[in-house]
Structure formats: structure tokens, C-alpha cells
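Reopening closed ticket. The problem is back. First fold of the pair:
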Amino acid sequence: MAAQVASRNVVKKVLAQETPEGAGALVRRSIGTMGLRNLTPFLLLDHFHISKGAGFPDHPHRGQATVTYMLEGSSKHEDSAGHAGTIKAGGVQWMSAGRGIIHAEMPIQDDDGPEPRGLQLWVDLPKKFKMSEPSYQELDPDQIPTAYPEGPNGPVMIKVISGKSYGVESPVRPLGGCWYFHVKFQKKGNAIFQPIPAGWTSFIYTLNGAIRIGTDPTPQPQYHTLILSAKESEEGVAITATEDTTDFILASTAL
């Protein structure tokens, strides 16, 4: 990274707390808790684990987008508009609820496979889209493009769920715009610099391992949501692994 490029830094971090949700499901929640209520336009972030017999039966959404990204296992989805489908491990569903919809998300339990785990992010829609028709953008794992900053056989992989990174752009077009990446580092010391438009609200959620941000040497451990600064002079964020086998989510969007 060139010395003159300024990185964003961590201005707040919140440990995701385990809490029951839905029908017997367990989530680690950070955004949307008392510790992190005001991160406009991000409304909620759940890192969920769905054991046998649990799930998220019929519930409403309105005026927001819900982004469901499966890390392990699969989940079925159906709604009041007649849409139904399956989100596989590594796949994503980007639902814009618009003027309102009722849907259910239930796991597919496989005795030979892992219990379903994933992330769900809620993003407030801009005012002009709040009364739009509900819509979906769904990608299977092999449809999500991947960036390899150090080459296809290198130690860094970035799944570009939405937005663009290292010359790779996702086909997902969120209403209002939102960038969403799943970054994996194989080794301690692996690093990236991800450009972020000036003024955008941004956060990182650490899934495994630990990272450091910008010039701060402090390791940021697993299950923490890291809120990033947004100074006009900061062109993006520098992220370095401080442990082997590290991965995290980076999300950013305009106010």
C-alpha cells in the first residue's frame, strides 16, 4: 500500500451477543442491540446458527432490504407473493421488501452435513424505494464472483457479494447501493486495501481469526463488529491478518 493512501480506522467495536431468535434459533447480534443501535442505514446484523427443529417462520418486512448469506448448510425461503427458493452454502439472497412482504426462512437439515449457519444483514431502503414492489436477487455460490489480489493460487480471496473489489464486480444491484464482501486470509500477515467511497458508512464483522485495521496494531478478535471512521481524506481501509485462517465480512453503503 502506498504511504500516501489514508486508511479508515476503528472508531467503535461491539462484541456480538448470543440471543434466541425466531423459533428455537440462536443468533449472535451486534447491530440492532443496545450497544449499537445507530449505524444508519444498517439496521441489524445477525450471525445465525439453526439447529434441528429451529428456524424463522412467517414474519413481515417493510421498507428495508434483507441480505441472507449462507456460510454452511442450506435454507429454504418462501413468501406471501408466491416466491420460493433455496439458499445454498456460499449463496446469497438479496431481498428488497419495499412496501411490505411476509416471508419464512427455514433450514434444510442434513444428517450428513453441518447445521445451517449464516449471516443476515438488514439495510434501510432510501425513501424513494420504500414503497416499491418487493424484489429479489439470488446468486448460487458459483455465481458470486471472486477476486484474488495475489492471483488464483494466492492466500487471499474476496467473494464480491455486491460492489467491486480488485477489478471484480458483482452482478447484484442493490436499491440504494451497498458493497458487501467476504474476505478470507490463509496466513498471518496477509493484507488488502479496499477502496471505499468517501462518506459511506462501513463496518467489519470478524468470523474467524483476528485482524488489525489501518496503522493500529491492536488485534480485533472473532465475533466483533468494527465500525470504521469516515473522514473525507480516508480513501479506503487497510486490513491485515494477525492469525492464520482468518475471515471476515466488510460492508459499506451511502447514507
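Second fold of the pair, where the issue appears:
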Amino acid sequence: MDALPDDQLPNSIGGRIRAARKSLGLNQGGLAARLGVSQPTVANWEADVHNPRQLMLAKLSEALEVSLGWLAGGNSTERLSPDHPAATYLARGVTHVPVLPPETLTDRQSLKSRTAHCTAIDYVPVSLDSTSLFGVMLDPGPYQALFPGTPLFIFDFERIAPEPDLFALLQTEDGPVLHGWTTSLAPLPSGEVLGTLTAAIRYF
């Protein structure tokens, strides 16, 4: 959906949901079916009876084909000077990565089909230009010293070839495990490679 001029911008989340839904030719029931909620729930959002929670906002932005920033806050007329220190960073695209429960990880095909979004428990924004990322809370196992605390691991399911000094997520008989690819590219334990580690974030 194209950004609206400021004087035509709905001034509430409900108004923006309604505008985006209508631009796709959907009725409230059709949007509800995409999200797995009831039609009255969509009606309540659009009437500003209550706002969707953060996780549902992310799902709405995908279903309505609009940015999460627009849906949550609308357009802004403010623009940073190109010389501002934050301008380059803010110009980078932001990807909203689904955080998946470890027990729902089965194979790469389910990740590639985007059905994994149905089981997402949260989304985290990252400034990485990729559409093949997913996050998972995982016990680092023998790599605890490298990843202290409770890290959220971000993996790329399109990167599955061994890469020196990086880590892979393997689906084994005992569930998903973190595996370090060494410089010698030692043989992998038995199991399907679900993706290569892209980032590890302290998650609270």
C-alpha cells in the first residue's frame, strides 16, 4: 500500500487497518481468516475498541502488505538531514524476524513455506537485508562460554553450506542443537542443517 498524504492519513491504528484492508479488496471476514481470528475481533480493532498486541501487529502488517512502522505509527513528515549521524542507520531496511519455539522446528521446507509464522511467539526487528531469517531461544550447550546468558539466535535457512568459524542449527533426533563449523570443516553430526547463525542477541 502506498503511503497516503498526511492530510488523508488515518489517525489511529484501527483506521490504518481499515484503509489497508480496503486497499486489498478484503472484507473483515477475509482479513480475519488470514490471521486466524474472528471477524468481531477485526471489527473491534478497526473501531479502536482495543488495539492489537505487538505480535498481532506484525502479523497484520504482513497480511495487509504494509510496513509495521506505518501500521503502528503512520507516516511522518519528519526527515533527518543526510549529514545526521543516524541517517545512514535509519535508512537501512528492517526485517521483522519470527521467534519460533524450538519444538516447532521440523525441517527447512516448513521454514521456507512461511508456515512457521503461524507458530511465532514474538518478532524482533533486525537491520539485516534478508527474508530467510528466523529466531529461536536455544541452549548453547558446549558453547555456553561464547554465548552467556539466554541468547536469542538468529539463523538464515538459505545458508546451509559449511562455513569456517560459523555455527549451524541442526535438527537431530534429540531436537535442534547448535553446532560449530570448525576451520577444518569437520563432518556434521547426523541431522538436517536448518540454517547458519547470523546473529546472537541478549533477549529478555
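Update: turned out to be a display glitch only; the data is intact. The chain has two domains: 9-73, 91-202. Residues 91-202 form a domain with the Umud Fragment, subunit A fold (CATH 2.10.109.10). Please close again.
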